[in-house]
Design a protein that fits this description.
Layout lengths: L20 H35 L1 H13 L8 E3 L4 E4 L5 E3 L1 E2 L3 E13 L3 E13 H12 L4 H6 L2 H7 L4 E7 L6 H20 L4 H8 L13 E7 L3 E6 L2 E7 L1 H12 L6 H15 L2
Antiparallel strand pairs: 1-2, 2-3, 4-5, 5-6, 6-7, 7-8, 8-9, 9-10
Length: about 280
C-alpha cells in the first residue's frame, strides 16, 4: 500500500492580541495565504499523482484484486515502479508483472549461497509466474469451498507443480562473478537431488540433458536473465537472455525444477509463502 508523506506541517493560527489588531490581522492574512498556497500545491501534486496512476491502472487493479481477497500484505518485499514492472527491494531488479501475455507474477525471492563458509552472497533474484486462467480452470473446483485458513494449510503449491499449468521461473543474476560452469554445477546438485527424490536414482541421463544446455560459451554478467518455463505437455523450455537453449519433455524434470522454489525445502521460504497466498487469492477472485 502506498503511503503519502507530507514534507510540511500546518502552522497554528496566531492568537488574537487586542492591543495590536493590525499586527494580528497581518499575521492571520499571511497564515491564510500560506495555507492556500500549500493547499494549491497539494492539489496540483494530487492531480499529477492521479495522472500517473492512470498509467498504472492495470497492475494496480491486479494488486487490488489480491488485497481485497486476502487482507494480508502479500507484497511486502516488492515496490511498484510502473504498470508493467515490479522491483525487488533487495536487489533492485525489475520483474515484469505479466510475462508472455498470460503468466502473472506470483512472488519474488532471492537465492543466497554461503561463499567459502564465511560470507552470504546474493546469487540471483527470482520471480515465479503462472497462467492465472489455467490456475482457475484446473484448481478452482478443488479449492472453491476452502476457507482462507484451510488454503494456507492446503497442498496448493504441490498441486500447481503437478498440474500441466504453464509456469516460468525467471532468474536475474545478482552476483557479477557467476560463471555458467557454476550454474551448471549448482543445477547438477540441486536438480539432481530432486530427481532422485521424486523419480529414483536412474535419471542421470535426464539430468545430463538439462545441465548440458548451460554451455561454456554463455556469459552471465550481473543482470543476465535465465528463464525456466513449463510449456503445455510438461515441456521444460530454457532461455538465456531471451535465446532458447533447449527444450525437454519431462513431467519429472518440470516438477524437480519448480520444487526448488515452491516445494518442501525451497531456496527462499518467505517467497514460497507469498506465492501460496497469492495463489489462494487468485482462486478467491
Amino acid at each position: 500500500m502506498v503511503s503519502l508523506r507530507f514534507p510540511f506541517s500546518f502552522s497554528q493560527p496566531p492568537k488574537n492580541n487586542p492591543k495590536k489588531p493590525l499586527e494580528s490581522f497581518s499575521r492571520a492574512a499571511m497564515a491564510a495565504g500560506s495555507i492556500a498556497a500549500v493547499t494549491l500545491g497539494f492539489g496540483i501534486g494530487m492531480g499529477a499523482a492521479i495522472s500517473l496512476n492512470k498509467k498504472k491502472k492495470t497492475f494496480d487493479d491486479f494488486i487490488s484484486h489480491l488485497s481485497s481477497s486476502n487482507p494480508s500484505p502479500l507484497w511486502g518485499s516488492l515496490s511498484l515502479t510502473s504498470a508493467e514492472t515490479v522491483t525487488d527491494s533487495k536487489t533492485g531488479f525489475p520483474f515484469p508483472a505479466i510475462l508472455n501475455d498470460n503468466r502473472r507474477l506470483l512472488g519474488i525471492g532471492l537465492r543466497r549461497k554461503v561463499l567459502f563458509g564465511l560470507k552470504n552472497i546474493d546469487v540471483y533474484a527470482f520471480g515465479v509466474y503462472a497462467d492465472d486462467g489455467e490456475i482457475k480452470k484446473l484448481l478452482t473446483d478443488k479449492y472453491s469451498e476452502f476457507s482462507a485458513s484451510e488454503l494456507k494449510e492446503s497442498k496448493l503449491n504441490e498441486d500447481i507443480m503437478e498440474k500441466d499449468i504453464c509456469m516460468t521461473v525467471r532468474l536475474q543474476i545478482a552476483y557479477g562473478r557467476l560463471s555458467i560452469r557454476s550454474v551448471r554445477n549448482a543445477f547438477e546438485d540441486s536438480v539432481g537431488n530432486r530427481l532422485k527424490k521424486f523419480g529414483g536414482a536412474d535419471n542421470a541421463e535426464l539430468l545430463q540433458s538439462f545441465t548440458s544446455q548451460f554451455k561454456d560459451e554463455y556469459k552471465l554478467p550481473r543482470g543476465s536473465v535465465i528463464e525456466l518455463s513449463r510449456e503445455p505437455g510438461h515441456v521444460l523450455r530454457t532461455t538465456i537472455d531471451g535465446k532458447e537453449v533447449g527444450s525437454i519433455q519431462s513431467k519429472l524434470l518440470c516438477r524437480s525444477i519448480f520444487d526448488l522454489y515452491i516445494g518442501e525445502d525451497p531456496f527462499d521460504t518467505q517467497a514460497k509463502e507469498d506465492i501460496k497466498q497469492n495463489l489462494a487469492a487468485l482462486l478467491k477472485e
